Amino acid sequence: MKLLEIKNLRKRFDELEVLKDISLDVEEGQVVSVLGPSGSGKSTLLRCMSMLEKADGGTMTYCGKTAMSEKDGKSVFADKKTLKEIKSYYSLVFQNFNLFPHYTVLKNICDAPIHVMKRDKDEVIKEGRALLEKMGLSDKADYYPYQLSGGQQQRVAIARALNMKPRMLFFDEPTSALDPELTAEILKVLKELAAEKMTMMIVTHEIAFARSISDHVIFMDGGVIVEQGSPADVIDSPSNERTKAFLKKLEQ
Predict the structure, then answer these.
(1) Which secondary-structure segment (H or E) carries 9?
(2) What element of type H or E holds 52?
(3) Residue 99 · residue 145 · CB < 8 Å
(4) Taking 70 as the threshold, does the pLDDT of residue 167 lie above it?
(5) What is the three-class DSSP state of 167?
(6) In terms of CB atoms within 10 Å, which end of the chain has fewer, N or C?
(7) Sign of the alpha-carbon torsion through 146, 121, 155, 42
(8) pLDDT above 70 covers what percent of the chain?
(9) Which residues on adjacent β-strands are paired with residue 59?
């Protein structure tokens, strides 16, 4: 089943056209990695897909429900009720963690499910503690973010996203703020989620990781999808010269 379907997505900031006619699908259980040089539009794509940025045109459908359509060349969003439901289908994990500094780890994980989703408090806390255990952080429930390493903070951010019970997770360069040792911690968590068939879309510079975890790889440059396909096609045997040049540069 297609969880996400995007057609002809466009976004500009003043005169700069950042996304040009982007079309892609994400199937349930699929792990999609988005590669490309800085400034290629990867993060903007993720922000438009999660509706943190308003796209200028195109269509976007989640689980068969239309989030955004286009009329007379302008983007038209669904009504508030539909958008609220659609936004419950996904969670976004940021590269800088975005934890609330004045909340404990457990409160960071449980606050939104209790207050935004109006779920049962005891049940949410129980699930939050189970997620902390899964992340290897069961002893950190009463800590504050400043008392944690970057890798631990990112694992809390992933637990927080999972506690919203999304059908799909977006990751915007989840390891770019971490050193190599902490990066390995996060990549291990993502591999475990992939093994559980969690649908994920990951913007990353970690090529070896993308090769090992992805069902589908997208290479972006200059606001367009230059090439997409299996890791074997895009990473190991790219057909486009821009993809080849990018990967060769990373190997050096």
Answers:
(1) strand 2-13
(2) none
(3) yes
(4) yes
(5) coil
(6) C
(7) negative
(8) 100
(9) 7
Handedness of CA 155, 216, 3, 56 (dihedral sign): positive
What's CA 129's distance to the chain center, in Å? 23
CA atoms of 215 and 194, how far apart (whole Å) = 10
pLDDT at residue 21 greater than cutoff 70? yes
d(CA 183, CA 92): 18
> What does the pLDDT read at residue 252?
67
Give the tokens for residue 170: 């977006």
Share of the chain above pLDDT 90, in %: 86
Q: What six digits make up the tokens of 58?
A: 């195109």
Q: How many CA atoms lie within 13 A of 193 on its CB side?
A: 28
Average pLDDT, the chain: 94
Calpha distance 30→46 (Å, rounded): 16
Structure tokens given for 178: 């971490």
In angstroms, rounded to a whole number, what is the distance separating the alpha carbons of residues 113 and 53?
Answer: 23
The residues, ordered by sequence, that sit 6+ positions from 63 with a Cβ below 8 Å of its Cβ are 1, 3, 86, 89, 167
End-to-end CA distance of the chain: 39
- Alpha helix ranges (H) inside 95-179: 105-115, 121-134, 150-162
pLDDT above 70 for 179: yes
Residue 80 corresponds to which tokens in the numbers above?
């508030």
pLDDT attached to residue 183:
87
Burial 177-209 (b: 16+ CB within 10 A, else e): bbeeebbebbbebbeebbeeebbbbbbbebbeb
**In the structure encoding, which two tokens stand for residue 100, read together?**
């609330």
Q: What integer is the mean pLDDT of 83-94? A: 94
Quote the pLDDT of residue 178.
85
Here the tokens at position 93 are 């994990």
